[in-house]
Every structure is written in C-alpha cells, then in structure tokens.
Amino acid sequence: xxxxxxxxxxxAIFFARAAQLASRTLKRGGGSTIPGVVARRIxxxxxxxxxxRLPLGSAAITGTNGKTTTTHMVGKILQTAGLRAVNNSTxxxxxxxxxxxxxxxxxLSGKPLSEMGLFEVDEANVPRVAAEAELKILAVLxxxxxxxxxxxxxxxxxxxxxxxxxxxxxxxxxxxxxxxPLVASLGGATSNPVFYxxxxxxxxxxxxxxxxxxxxxxxxxxxxxxxAVYMGHIGVYRCPRGDFSRPPLAYRASRVSLEGARGSTFLxxxxxxxxxxxxxxxxxxxxxxxxxAAAVAGEAGVGLDAVVRGISEFGGAFGRVERIKxxxxxxxxxxxxxxxxxxxxxxxxxxDADARNVLIAINDNDADGRDVSWLWDVDFxxxxxxxxxxxxxxxxxxxxxxxxxxxxxxxxxxDLPVGPVIPDRKEAxxxxxxxxxxxxxxxxxxxxxxxxxxxxxxxxxxxxHQFWEDG
Length: 471
Fold this sequence. Notes:
The structure is a single chain. This protein is of the alpha/beta class. It folds into 2 domains: about 5-315, UDP-N-acetylmuramoyl-L-alanine:D-glutamate ligase (3-Layer(aba) Sandwich); about 320-470, Alpha-Beta Complex (Protein-Tyrosine Phosphatase, Chain A), CATH 3.90.190.20. Helices cover about 35% and strands about 20% of the residues. The protein is built from 16 helices and 17 strands. Helix 10 (about 285-300) packs antiparallel against helix 11. About 55% of the residues are buried.
C-alpha cells in the first residue's frame, strides 16, 4: 500500500535536496549534513516518517573505533545478499546526517528506494537516533577513551547508549562486543543481547597497556583477571569475585591468522553455522569489525554464505584504511583518533621494515577533539624499541596539521627522528609524496579533519575522487 501524500514531508525533501545541490555547487562540502538540517526545520518528524517506510527497518552501529568501516562492511554484505540499504556513507553520523541519508534515498513523495536503513551513529547521538529512526538492531563496537572534551568518562557514555535500548522493539537485537567489559555489561539493560568476540590465545599480548580503559569489573569495581589481552582493555576476562565475566558468544572468530597488509583469515562461527572467512583489511581490529558486521547482518536475517562473501569482497571505507594510487607511488591512509587505535596502527604497520615513509597529521578541530594530550599516551616508544631490536635505522617522520609542533615534540621525547614539520596539510602531502621513492608507499596517519583535507588535496591532484562520490 502506498503512503498517503504528505505535503510537509514533500516540501522538506525538496528543499533539502536544493540545499545539497547548493552546497556542492558552491564547493562548501559534500552536502552530507545540511540537507538533514534543512529537512528537520521544515518537518521535525521527517526521520521517523521516512524510517517507518523502510520495509526491513533499520540498524545502527556505534562505538569509539570502527563505526564507518563496520557500517560499510554491513552494506557490502547486504548488497551481496541482494538487499539495498540507505546509509550515511560519508560519516555524517549525527542525527542530521542520518536524516540527510534517508532524505537522499526517498522520492519527493517520501517513497524509499532502499529496503533497509543502515546508519553509523555518534555515541552521544544514539538515544536521539533510536527514538526517531525505528531501529531494529543496534550494535555497540567498543568504548575507548576518546575526545574527553566531548564525552567525559566512559561509564557515562555507556549509560547514554544504554538509555536508547528502550526505544528498540521487544524483538530488536542489541549486538555487543563481549570482549569489551564495559560494552558487555550493557547487555543487562536489554532483553535481547547478542554477543560477539574473538577466541585467539596466540594473539594474547600478555599484558594490559597503561592506556587500557575499562579494566575493572563494571559490577563491583575489582580489577579484572585477564586470560588474554588483545588490545587496550579488549580480551578474555573475569571478575575474581565472580560478579562478572565475558558472556557466551553467539558470533565468534577463532583460528585467527593475521597476514599483515594482505588482511586476515579466521573461522567464523554463527548461530547459522560456521565458515572460513577472509578479509582484505589488515589488523586484529578489522577482524573485530568484520565480526561485528557478521553479527549485524546475521541478526538482519542474511545467510552465512552472503556474510562471508560480503566480508571478503569489502575493500575499505574512505580514509580509514584506504590505498590511493598516486602516480608511481601509493598513499596509504590510516585514520587515527585515540591512543588504543593509534597503537594498533603503529603495531600493525609502522613497525614493519617497509614503512620507511610516514606522514603524521594532527588537527584539533571539534571533530578531532580539542584536547591533544592523548598523544602522550600513544606508545611511540615501541617504534624505537623495534628499531633497536632489529638494528635498523628509523627514517624521519614528516609531521603536519594544526598541532604539528606538539606531534614533533612527542616524537622527539620517544627518541624518534623528526623530518619536515609542515603545518599545511596540502603542502605536507605533496612534499611527502615527492620524498617517497617511486614504487614505495607513503603511510599517512591523520586525525579526522586532517584526513579529509589530505584526501581533498589528493583529489585536487587528480589521484582520487571526492568523498561524497563514493557509492
């Protein structure tokens, strides 16, 4: 049955699209947020109205690290299964960005082109999106210390997210990372928690890093005993007093084999069976992203074969883990945003002998977080230790961004060589590429807004397209 004509809805969609066109024509951005702002001013209920018309409902993905990659990965799985999903693919993850996405997907009468909604959502915006977007699945990936000037303590962020569970239908699924103690503890606030996690004893780092966040029992506050630590506070744990332990896993990755830049393989176990899986994205953190994507897709009713094929065919989200051909060189963009994520990037890539050309770009705009003291919690010393152990000379780092000097000082205190300090992002990427020998890769480690600036510079140089042209 077709939806009745709603003049206010139609007007909101029309003027939102006009705003998007104007934004792109005037080169004020991709128009990924402004259409949502305009549409909501004309019709404050537009997100609810359009979401209700999606035949398969919507899923949302939140957490500190991996939101964009996981959301894109779920989208690829759904596409493999023959399903069309509307998503805020450019990373505009506030309620205005989610609104802009469903507006872009609808006809002027409000009929959606897609069957399902798939949204990346900023942690603080989860309650608002859940209240309006008719969610059937909500996934929480992890909670790390990130942008303290915006979010405050992790326990508070967890409570904010959990407050949204009541807006899901009774049969709705809350997908939770069982290996993150704080995230796992949120399962007590919902009637249908679905847990995923990794079983890979061989990847145990043997110790909690000093930047580990949620390492105390969320029930009694006693320090947790860890059987395995995979990264930060992520691992296999139990409370010594018996108050809390890692929950049973519905979705599990075992026999994990990390194959460097080539990606990883693992055995994926789900309620619908098990299968060998391969991802082309490197690092254990991307195994977690793939596992979360499998859980979301599985709870949406997608079969195991489509899940495995979608994961294997996924090539990455813009700027997060993205290779860009730059003439006879390559730029490898690896987004950084907090100590744990930065440490995993360093461990996975920069300790490799091939990582001879590195550009780090640190901004402190609102989207990056104004407080850059977190740079002192990053374990840059591991690079110096790795160089000393291998008796290899470490190449100087090129440093850029609004806080380039802060980054240079941090590297010096880690006894690492600092090369050119070029605050301007466009000039920095140009200079760093020219200094990269032909046939080699430039590893680019930017914060969020620096990534957008560097990616735009690469687009202006003719090496890639603008971010809103994806998909």
